[in-house]
Amino acid sequence: MFATFTDKIIAGSSPAVLDALLKKTSRGVFDWKKRASFQNTVNYAYKNSAFYRKQFNNLNINPSKIKSPRDLGDFYTKPEDIINHAEDFLCCRPHTVFESSGTTGQNKRIYMTQDELNAIGKFVAAGLFLGGVTKKDNIINALDFCIWIPGIVTQKGLEQSKLFGITAGKIDPMEVYKRIERYKITVVIGEPTWLIKLTEIAETHGSLPLKLLIGGAEAMPENARGWMKDVWQGADVRMVYGTVESAGIIAFEPHDECGAYHIDENNFYVETVNTDSEGYGEVVFTTLNRRCMPLIRYKNHDISRIINEPCTCKLPFRRLAKLRGRTDEIVVTSGGNLYPLMFEEILKDVDGITRDWQIIFSSRGVKEVMELHLERAKDSIQEKIETQTFENIKTKYPDLWKNLSFKTFDTDFVYHTPNTLRNGRKLIRLIDKRNLS
Ligand SMILES: [Zn+2]
Questions:
Q1: Cα–Cα distance, 148 to 163 (Å, whole number)
Q2: C-alpha distances in angstroms, 292 versus 113, 179, 182, 392, 417?
Q3: Contact by Cβ (8 Å): 332, 361
Q4: CA of 181 to the centre of ligand 1 (A)
Q5: Are strands 138-141 and 164-167 parallel, antiparallel or unpaired?
Q6: CB 210 within 8 A of CB 183
Q7: Distance 3 CA to ligand 1 centre (A)
Q8: Residue 54, phi then psi, degrees to nearest 5
Q9: DSSP 8-state class, residue 77
Q10: pTM, 2 dp
Q11: CATH code where residue 352 lies
Q12: Cα(61)–Cα(431) distance, rounded to whole angstroms?
């Protein structure tokens, strides 16, 4: 039945067919399936994986009594587990492995079978159609193909979709731009920073009739979306949320009106733990269909909130709010708990700065200092940047403003020339360099 739901989406794929299908799909059916799959996964993992058997035995967990994630109490799997013991998780012989990017030499490893990879492709294809792609669209996949995952997963999705697609990989955006017209490309998939470069090319050389730009594998700067839509003259810009560990897409943004990601509750049981008063907590997920290397209650270190209210788009899946950042990026200061999304909101409409910025918390004597490292355009006015930033803090984050006006900590603006802050694939937004005891 559930395979048919995905198959029907891929086969149907016209907005009218999807609309009719979603109207008769109730969330209750998915919830029932989700609970059953969770129980199966726990029992299967105990039986087949050395890691889970050892952990459950140590904690006196009887898998046959586990009905929901909460029944597992304090049991979680963590990044350290799949850095140090990935192979102990295995329940069968894998066909391939993906690694997290990173230069620490301690990469996370996710193994899977070819069947699992194909199944992920099916859900990627279904996600594309739910997001407004139709059989008439032509797609270019410009995500990276390397030992980490997004290029190949998207490729599997393109194969299942049976659309016309080009497998470009992460090449010079100009090379893609030059081919958009020739191949009548309507959908471009790439990393947000790469999509931004492509958009800069379109801004200089002219817009082309794209319908959709889909970003993934890293966060999209808040102030980039509106600008991208303007340059591409109305094309939609959407993001998907996935990680190497999820080996696919945990949640996706099918429509602008959703205002958040819809969780793929066919494949993931997502919880948030240690939630604050606003309901934001650490994202924890369980894979429901992976049989080579299932992950049970994996702590993803991202901070978000689950939205239970039904969405106007009729998709039965719950939603996940825009990520606030990662648990290791939340900085506890005298100004409160500060997180990357907060600064995205503060800086997104400040004139004269680029989309790259970094906030460093440091100490000056006994005083805390919030250093705002900004890339300033040549002809911009420093004073105006600072006034606008403070205005935004005042209106959007009154608590932070209160502390700033009391001068419980200092604020320094540090200016850089454009394109100098980012020197790796990802720009760490919040850094804590305070000497705290
Ligand atoms: Zn929706």
A1: 24
A2: 6, 39, 41, 48, 48
A3: no
A4: 31
A5: parallel
A6: no
A7: 21
A8: -65, -45
A9: B
A10: 0.83
A11: 3.30.300.30
A12: 39
- Asked, for residue 320, whether it belongs to a domain, the answer is yes
Separation CA 3–CA 128 (nearest Å): 16
> What are the φ/ψ torsions at residue 73 (nearest 5 degrees)?
60, -120
Alpha helices in 232-355 (DSSP H): 340-347
Q: What residues does the ion ligand 1 have nearby, CB within 5 Å?
A: 258, 311, 313, 315
- Domain residues for 221? 1-324
For residue 153, the CA-to-ligand 1 centroid distance in Å is: 23
Mean pLDDT of 58-77: 96
CA distance 116 to 329: 32
What's the number of domains the chain is made of?
A: 2
Q: What is the Å distance from ligand 1's center to 386 Cα?
A: 37
Query: What is the whole-number distance in angstroms between the Cα of residue 313 and the centre of ligand 1?
Result: 4
pLDDT digits over 233-271, tens only? Answer: 989 999 999 888 888 889 998 888 898 999 999 899 999
* CA gap 161, 129 in Å, rounded: 8
Q: From 354, 338, 341, select the one nearest 411 (Cα to Cα).
A: 338
In terms of domains, do 270 and 156 share one? Answer: yes
pLDDT per position as a tens digit, 352-406 = 998 889 999 888 877 788 999 999 988 899 999 999 999 999 999 888 888 888 7
* Final residue in a domain of this structure, among 276, 295, 324: 324
How far, in Å, from the CA of 358 to the mean position of ligand 1?
Answer: 32
C-alpha–C-alpha distance, residues 233 and 215, integer Å: 18
Question: In this predicted structure, what is the pLDDT of residue 415?
Answer: 95
Q: How confident is the model at residue 336 (pLDDT cuts 50, 70, 90)?
A: confident
CA separation for the pair 36, 265 (Å, rounded): 12
236, β-bridge pairs: 212
Q: Are residues 175 and 126 in the same domain?
A: yes
Considering the domain boundaries, does residue 177 fall inside one? Answer: yes
Percent of the chain that is helix, strand, coil (3-state, to 5): 40, 25, 40
Report CA(258)–ligand 1 centroid distance (Å).
Answer: 4
In angstroms, what is the span from residue 259 Cα to ligand 1's centroid? 7
Residue 201's H or E segment, with its range, is helix 192-205
**Run of H or E residues at 241:** strand 236-243
Let me know if residue 89 belongs to a domain.
Answer: yes
- Indicate whether 437 belongs to any domain: no
Res. 194: pLDDT tops 80: yes
Residue 197, exposed/middle/buried by CB under 10 A (0-12, 13-18, 19+)? middle
* Among 36-50, 61-75, 113-127, 411-425, the least confident range: 411-425
Alpha carbon distance 218, 220 (integer Å): 7
